Amino acid sequence: MIKVYRKTATIKAEQFTKENEFELIEKYSMELFEYVSIGSGPNIPVDHAGDGCMIYSIDTKRGQIHLVVGDWIATGVNGEHWAVTDDVFKKTYAELPVVPHYVAEYINYMKSSYRDIWDAINYPFRSDNINKYMEDNSETFARAWLDGYQVEGHK
Predict the structure, then answer these.
(1) How many CB atoms are located within 10 Å of the residue 93 CB?
(2) What is the reported pLDDT for 5?
(3) Any residues with CB less than 8 A from the CB of 72 and at least 6 apart, and which?
């Protein structure tokens, strides 16, 4: 029987675009691997790296990875990098919800008090801010509780 799994580790990712091209080339010590004038480069599908496409490479612990503008550079929990095409990235990953700092503090408090989401939803001593947020954003709150979150204004 085939079992179904979901990814549980949080990753960081940034899309390699024309706007941030030079910044990411420097950040990841990328090198121009190949300029594709006809066909495709190694390990890059023809429809992914068309005529006039520059393929860049990044050295990783597992060898070189290749990417083109439009791909995503993902960084895993151990600092490892890999490239993901835009269409695969959008099918595979969802951005963590963004919550206000007071919601993050509430989630942290409830979890550190060994309470579950049921307790958090039914806790009688919530502030008016938390009550209002949970009324207006119940699905975002649940997703933040289960999957993690980003705090507004933090990078």
Answers:
(1) 15
(2) 84
(3) 13, 14, 15, 16, 83, 84, 85, 86, 89
